[in-house]
């Protein structure tokens, strides 16, 4: 009888601990208040009127240029060459391609005037690391690209010669193996 009284509280404590550990991955990096981005990752945009945004159709996702941006050139097969500075939103189902809905799942930023938590595509990699570590993210240093992970959200700063990009995204799964 004494063992039963001991086992039940220990079992409840273990279940509580596992639940708490399992919930830590659900951190959400909120849209910064000081950004000029129109949308944020995991934002449901099903009811958004995208008139005024240049749209490209993709396989499993659509790509919307931020307001005021448009491709520098359209080439054969409707492929677009982006301008030097722009913001492109990827809109797809989330969390899985079979889930339906329209969510922002990726934001690519090459306009140095657009910031995310004070970081732009022109920021130094050291500044990027400092800001996102202070926000509680973990940093992966891959040389020319640094990736901050904050729960399900990833933010990367890539610096390739003259080309720099700040990208914010969440992974979209494809559990049913949908071919696009």
Describe the protein's topology.
Blueprint: H1 2-23, E1 55-57, E2 62-65, E3 73-74, E4 80-81, E5 87-92, E6 103-109, H2 125-134, E7 138-141, E8 145-150, E9 153-160, E10 163-170
Integer-rounded radius of gyration: 20 Å
Spatial shape = globular
Structure class: alpha+beta
Distance between the first and last residues' Cα: 60 Å
Considering DSSP H and I runs of 4 or more, what fraction of the residues is helical? Answer: 10-25%
H/E order of the elements?
HEEEEEEHEEEE
Secondary structure tally, helices: 2
Strand content: 25-35%
Strand order of the largest sheet: 1-2-5-6-10-9-8-7
Poorly predicted residue ranges: 16-24
**What does the average pLDDT come to?**
86
Describe the 3D structure.
It contains two helices and ten strands; from the N terminus they run αββββββαββββ. The chain is an alpha+beta fold and 180 residues long. Strands 1-2-5-6-10-9-8-7 form an eight-stranded antiparallel beta sheet, covered by helices on one side. Strand 9 (153-160) and strand 10 form a beta hairpin.
Q: Brief overview, please?
A:
This protein has about 180 residues and is of the alpha+beta class.
Considering the chains and any ligands shown, give keywords for the structure.
single chain; 180 residues; alpha+beta; eight-stranded antiparallel beta sheet; two-stranded antiparallel sheet
